[in-house]
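Think of the structure tokens as a kind of shorthand, similar to the way a musician reads notation: each symbol stands for something richer, in this case the local conformation of the backbone. In the example below we present two proteins back to back. Begin with the first one, reading the sequence and then the tokens, and try to describe in your own words what changes along the chain.
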Amino acid sequence: MSQTLTPPKITSLLAPQAAPANPPSLTVEFFQETIALTKRLFIQLQRRPTTLVAGIIQPFMWLVLFGALFLNAPQGLFGNDLNYAQFLAPGIIVFTAFSGALNAGLPVMFDREFGFLNRLLVAPLASRYSIVAASTVYIISLSLIQAAVIVGASALLGAGLPNSFGLGMIALIVFLIVLGVTALSLGLAFALPGHIELIAVIFVTNLPLLFASTALAPLDFMAHWLQVVASLNPLTYAIEPIRYIYLNGNWGLDSTVLTAPWFSLNFAQVLGVLVLFDGLVLLLIQPLLKRRFL
């Protein structure tokens, strides 16, 4: 009894598959890629949460130590019925977000040095800008988490707690300053030759920008030349509106929040300066990204 063996239909398996009837748009693919790359960064954070923990402990120590340092300062030194914890909290919130954003380029730099970035660049991505977008979303998320913790800690230390609308405005200000600084850090990650140079830039700019702002002292405490420098510092434009929210229950977009040596700005104008700063940085890093991605 003979049996006929029929070969499997190999040709049908090797034939090219038809494209889906409705392929996802480039926008959908971009968001999918951004979400996947952001998830990768959060997985790294979950495995090594030291960065987040240190980013919360350090500003909390600043709040405690500087609050104790000026605990017996003369009454009214920083304003009527104002303790130093209330004055310091906005500066620590912004500086914590700024420090995290300034370090945003380090993961990308390490990906460059270990070769993972090259693998992403040769992958069939809908847009290589999803690499930058994922890092930005990741850093903004961490900054908002850290800011929320510092707001709660400062409330326990006597700084008070703004209302829900004030908290939302603080989140918006933190978002604006983090967006610009993160973009700048990512641009440096693609421009500098290695992580040693990037860390050097971070060390050189971190504390000087803190002391050249109104985070630790008001403008009228400073020498005139430092007042000019602080008036050009983007951190000052993030600190002052948050400080105004802490010190004034009734505030609006027309409230004057910053009085510099040669001008005064209200709430809306300060927000406009932060948006302008973000737009300028995003414009400046475009040649670096295009040279790397295209």
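Once you have a description of the first chain, move to the second and do the same.
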Amino acid sequence: MSPRAEADGLAEAEQRGRNATLMQTYVEGLATTSPPGPTAPAAAVTVLRDLVFSEPGTGGELRLDLYLPEGVPGPRPVIVWLPGGGWQRAARGMGPHLGRLFAQHGYAMADIEYRSSRTALWPAQLHDVKAAVRYLRSVAQDRGLDAERIGAWGSSAGGHLAALLGLTGGDPVWEGNGGHAAYPSDVQAVVDGYGPADLLHMDADSLPGGVVNDIDPSSPPWGLLGGPTTEHPEPASQASPVSHVSGPTAPFLILHGDADLLVGPRQSERLFDALHGAGSEATLVSVHGAGHGFFNTDALERTPPLATTVHTTRSGERAQDRSGALTSGLVERFFDLHLRRHFAD
């Protein structure tokens, strides 16, 4: 081995070690911070657990937990929570307090799981989350759900899948065979938390000191595709939300920490720019000083809140950037505007 090749090999080994450390820090931080308790009497919420929504050919049954607010008149709008975990650890319970955010405020919250990339490669994960949306529409009448008002909210890999839900509705190519085929899988609003948007450019968009994926067989994109993006450019493109932006879409709220070492913030900027070019309604919130995974901590309910810069586009027109703060109200107001009938009608 030449000295240069040996040096390159040592550099790659060092980077893979750094990748492992960053990923382990993220995994250990999932839901380790307890959110503050409620400051006012909470509305009653009924939780229906372990509802089977799909039985795909590999990986066994897929289940969801459904949080239903009590005493809410009329069909309740639905928010589907999509957990992160690098497409490898898509377990229920990995996320914010769904009873408080936002079942106690009148939303039906669906906490779903999807197949790990260790069980099935792309596009199984998209097929699974689409099956969950179709299932919720199939039981809407029995469960008091508003089948016309469904939003998707995801963290990391879940944010990636939430974005794809908002961009592939009505395209039969991506529906899969997860059941309830008579119902559509489109959603009416998307909250994408720091999800990968362009898999072919993830390494180019990585911050200094951040994860480099294509040299590391243990990296999430490698696991999702079955190899590095350089060797799988077509599925990498198909799995990239930016590739599916072709015209006006469901409204998007995109949030990303500007210190994210796992998914560079440029990824969300790429998606925002694509939505802007397509004339969609989109808001990008840059969260100052935040790393990866803040939806899995108390960040939405923290005092004082993290500072943000807010970028907005509608019908191809950019609004002036403004300062803001990361709060649960930011996410709730977005869903209120697009899912509650008295706001949207």
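Compare your description with these statements about the second chain. The first helix runs from residue 3 to 29.
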